[in-house]
């Protein structure tokens, strides 16, 4: 049966409730869309239009598919993308955009986003000439095999080995124990022919730590596992079930020495080891994925909020107890708590989008440097991406779940759309490093930077907002927030508040660590507060990056001779203020503990937050429409652009019934097999005789 394709939204047939909401937006939505997407807007719309002309890319039947059929459908999409890539001459950026436009995940994403970048950053120029064309033309299909059954985030303890055999100029790859088998890599179980496998380099009996190698795992033609290779599928997961996450055991498999990835570290024919300039260069792919998670968190949350906010403007409920409503039901967005929870989440989504831009640009600069052998940015990018990945994935999934709950019963249905978005995104809190461990990595980098600066008296490597507290330990006691009642709170005031909070937590942690000896044992004793330090660092970045992005955009608008007071910028400034105030109030104790923010100011901030939420009431539909998400990307009966919620739910349910498996006698599944006998026994006990109708 071909994929189920519900009628796409026709803007001219938008339900009146949603049409009236859009008519009240104060800014041109298209202009905001251009600001959010920049130079990628035109190509992503062009590519999306091509995709949505082909029924293979419809996502609408996904709620009704088994895991096995989801996987096959994802391969069909991947195959079609490869065909379109070749036909249209798409480059790397086009292909990544196409996969973002799918509204679904395919094993191809692991090949394009992990395997190929690993080849680019880890293979030498000579090796790339051999392997990159094979990967880019899909002669081979690859995945990233790092995590093991017993070790994930602790990369230094990975157990897979690659032992050099000097007699044959080969490495022998082994997963020597059950614990050491590769476990979890996406696209490993069934899709991939090759993998970038991370293993301990053993030379002449000496362990040189973990390094990347290229390993063929399936035979060409038959796709059967190679000799010495055992592969399997890990089965159902919370989400992401279009991807074949798997396990890999390797038994004495030999590969040529040339299949050690030697851009950074090298092993000569004689078995001599030449180390990389920086050991972290071997993990540049992992850092890249963390940076992408930060960028994508805002959009994933934006998808969920687009659904929830559109639905909240169509769904009517309550109002009978409000005299002014005269017994009429009201839009659920006009219930104060609904409006509050969705608007504050929307502000967070935009803050994450702005920070995602900064993080991705930092990653791109670092990637360029790594390819050229420069590692100056690596430590900062690694630390920043770790903490932000942890913070944004935690916040995004928590607020997506709240958006799902805000949709009531229809939010519980997979056809509501948020369930699939949420369960797919939930992997991000664990993938590429469990979040608590990543927070510790970030705070460890911060502390080492600070301790080194205190020792040398050179503060140039210290974030600017933390320097005053290091120069004068008493400055924090003297600082107070400049917040007054009945007025907007400036970006400068809010940014200063988050710097103050971070500096105070940092000062506390540094003092404790120095007291305990300043070594690893001292840091281990302070883990709880170190995680809090990383979170304060990340939240400060979210606040600063939002305001800085708007300041930069204001200058761009002025340079074009336009008035920044007109258009979307005033609305975004309110959204940035709301985000910062809400984050502050969510952890008010951190800001009031030392008197920086007074109890009276907390009351004023609550009043200002409520004022901002109410002031944005008729802007939020424009703010979510600006994400530029198609119906197919959202794959939601309740988040359609035209607001035809109930017709869509009915069509989806009818389709589900039409493909439901029939019972053994052609009736309802389960009746002839089970219920018939149960009901018959009940009637027999009660003396009821049922005569079948002819």
Query: Helix amount, in percent?
Result: 40-55%
Largest sheet: 6 strands, mixed
Number of domains: 3
Number of strand segments: 13
Backbone CA Rg:
28 Å
Report the span from N to C terminus: 33 Å
Q: Residue-averaged pLDDT, rounded?
A: 92
CATH class of the largest domain: Mainly Alpha
CATH superfamily of the largest domain, please? Butyryl-CoA Dehydrogenase, subunit A, domain 3
Low-confidence stretches: none
Could you tell me the strand content as a percent range? 5-15%
CATH architecture of the largest domain: Up-down Bundle
Number of helices: 25
* C-alpha geometry: globular
The CATH topology of the largest domain comes to Butyryl-CoA Dehydrogenase, subunit A, domain 3
Q: Which class of secondary structure composition applies to the elements?
A: alpha+beta
Oligomer: single chain
Binding site for FAD: 147, 186
Family: Belongs to the acyl-CoA oxidase family.
Pfam family, one: ACOX
Protein name: Acyl-coenzyme A oxidase
């Amino acid at each position: 049966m071909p994929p189920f394709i519900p009628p796409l939204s026709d803007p001219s047939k938008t339900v009146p409730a949603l049409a009236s909401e859009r008519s009240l937006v104060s800014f041109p939505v298209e202009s905001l869309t251009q600001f959010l997407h920049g130079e990628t807007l035109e190509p992503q719309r062009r590519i999306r239009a091509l995709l949505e002309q082909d029924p293979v890319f419809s996502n609408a039947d996904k709620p009704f598919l088994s895991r096995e059929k989801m996987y096959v459908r994802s391969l069909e999409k991947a195959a079609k993308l490869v065909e379109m890539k070749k036909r249209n001459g798409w480059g790397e950026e086009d292909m990544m955009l196409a996969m973002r436009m799918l509204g679904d995940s395919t094993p191809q994403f692991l090949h394009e986003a992990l395997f190929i970048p690993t080849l680019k950053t880890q293979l030498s120029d000579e090796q790339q000439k051999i392997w990159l064309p094979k990967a880019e033309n899909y002669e081979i299909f690859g995945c990233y095999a790092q995590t093991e059954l017993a070790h994930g985030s602790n990369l230094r303890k990975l157990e897979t080995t690659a032992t050099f055999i000097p007699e044959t100029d080969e490495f022998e790859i082994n997963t020597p124990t059950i614990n050491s088998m590769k476990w979890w890599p996406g696209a490993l179980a069934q899709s991939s022919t090759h993998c970038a496998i991370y293993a301990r380099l053993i030379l002449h009996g000496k362990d040189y730590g973990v390094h990347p190698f290229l390993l063929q795992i399936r035979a060409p033609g038959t796709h059967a596992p190679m000799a010495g290779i055992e592969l399997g599928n890990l089965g159902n997961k919370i989400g992401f079930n279009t991807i074949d996450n798997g396990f890999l055991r390797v038994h004495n498999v030999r590969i040529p020495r040339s299949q050690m990835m030697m851009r950074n570290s090298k092993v000569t024919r004689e078995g001599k080891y030449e180390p990389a300039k920086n050991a972290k260069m071997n993990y540049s792919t992992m850092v890249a994925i963390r940076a992408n998670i930060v960028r994508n968190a805002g959009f994933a949350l934006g998808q969920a909020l687009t659904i929830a906010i559109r639905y909240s403007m169509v769904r009517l409920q309550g109002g009978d107890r409000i005299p002014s409503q005269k017994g009429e039901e009201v839009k659920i967005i006009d219930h104060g708590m609904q409006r509050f929870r969705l608007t504050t989440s929307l502000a967070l989504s935009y803050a994450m989008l702005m920070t995602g831009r900064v993080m991705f640009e930092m990653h791109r600069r670092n990637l360029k440097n790594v390819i050229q052998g420069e590692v100056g940015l690596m430590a900062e990018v690694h630390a920043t991406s770790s903490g932000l990945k942890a913070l944004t994935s935690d916040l995004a999934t928590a607020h997506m779940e709240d958006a799902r709950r805000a949709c009531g019963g229809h939010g519980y249905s997979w056809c509501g759309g948020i369930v699939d978005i949420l369960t797919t995104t939930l992997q991000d809190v664990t993938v590429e490093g469990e979040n608590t461990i990543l927070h510790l990595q970030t705070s460890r980098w911060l502390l080492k930077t600070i301790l080194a600066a205190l020792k040398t008296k050179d503060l140039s490597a210290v974030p600017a907002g933390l320097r005053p507290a290091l120069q004068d330990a008493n400055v924090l006691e003297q600082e107070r927030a400049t917040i007054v009642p009945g007025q907007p709170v400036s970006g400068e005031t809010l940014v200063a508040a988050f710097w103050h909070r971070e500096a105070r937590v940092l000062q506390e942690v540094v003092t404790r660590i120095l007291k305990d000896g300043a070594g690893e044992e001292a840091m281990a004793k302070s883990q709880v507060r170190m995680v809090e330090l990383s979170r304060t660092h990340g939240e400060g970045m979210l606040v600063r990056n939002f305001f800085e992005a708007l300041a930069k955009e204001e200058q761009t608008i002025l340079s074009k001779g336009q008035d920044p007071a007109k258009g979307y910028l005033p609305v975004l400034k309110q959204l940035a203020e709301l985000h910062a105030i809400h984050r502050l109030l969510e952890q008010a104790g951190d800001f009031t503990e030392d008197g920086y923010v007074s109890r009276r100011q907390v009351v004023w901030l609550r009043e200002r937050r409520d004022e901002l939420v109410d002031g944005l009431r008729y802007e939020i539909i424009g703010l979510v429409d600006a994400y530029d998400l198609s119906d197919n990307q959202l794959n939601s009966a309740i988040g359609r652009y035209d607001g035809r919620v109930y017709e869509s739910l009915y069509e989806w349910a009818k389709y589900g019934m039409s493909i439901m498996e029939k019972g053994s006698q052609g009736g309802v599944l389960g009746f002839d097999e089970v219920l018939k006998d149960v009901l018959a026994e009940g009637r027999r006990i009660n003396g009821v005789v049922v005569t079948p109708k002819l």
